[in-house]
Amino acid sequence: xxxxxxxxxxxxxxxxxxxxxxxxxxxxxxxxxxxxxxxxxxxxxxxxxxxxxxxxxxxxxxxxxxxxxxxxxxxxxxxxxxxxxxxxxxxxxxxxxxxxxxxxxxxxxxxxxxxxxxxxxxxxxxxxxxxxxxxxxxxxxxxxxxxxxxxxxxxxxxxxxxxxxxxxxxxxxxxxxxxxxxxxxxxxxxxxxxxxxxxxxxxxxxxxxxxxxxxxxxxxxxxxxxxxxxxxxxxxxxxxxxxxxxxxxxxxxxxxxxxxxxxxxxxxxxxxxxxxxxxxxxxxxxxxxxxxxx
Length: 294
Hints:
- With 294 residues, this protein is α+β, with helices and mostly antiparallel strands.
- It folds into two domains: 4-144, Fructose-1,6-Bisphosphatase, Chain A, domain 1 (2-Layer Sandwich); 153-287, D-Maltodextrin-Binding Protein, domain 2, CATH 3.40.190.
- Helices cover 33% and strands 23% of the residues.
- It has seven helices and 15 strands.
- The strands form three sheets. An eight-stranded mixed sheet has the order 4-3-5-6-7-8-9-10, sandwiched between helices.
- Strand 9 and strand 10 form a beta hairpin.
- It is globular.
- The termini are far apart.
């Protein structure tokens, strides 16, 4: 079994390689395509993914990979399977990037037989690399990360995002947004779930919720928050946040309150909030489909 420290550093290096591409292309003219109606992908997404996958496939040829732009791929033919699966988002915050908004990230995580083993979220413009290894803490540079101790909704700064398809059925998610904004100190919506979770881990935000996400959006952030002492669940309070499409994350005391609001709103709407999850592990919509948000 590959050591956690080695996996953590591999996540970091892959993220750095993808981030270097994004920095190089930042501020230059982008080639933009569309996946469906308004879900966009740029040449920078593809170039970043190519750079980081070249490293991962070369370093871990026995691994499976699920990457946002290229989809799922099995281990390299003829390589001994290592039981690892990598989740890669080469550019979380594509809409921000394409519009020149300097808030986006590269996401890389790896899962072994015991769950998420390591993850990295890199903000390439701020040069902030958030790293976590299972049982080894969450870190930003040399600083160990901790979630906030906020235990009152009225003192909480929350963050969220909306899926690309919110225009098709906006009411359930907007009712949930209203419920939180009426209770919290404030709510932010910055357009990159990877950084939202990293900011919860480092205490910039007190809590985060979002629906219709993909595994590559959240895999590093789940571990970052957990290793920073926080709690992470799906909208029902269960543990299907990697593949189930919904996530709620905060310090333990506040997360309980976030879940209470979720239960209240879901009950009022017949559990409509958070529908359309990403699918079961290893198949279905978890292995493809449109970018969940941004």
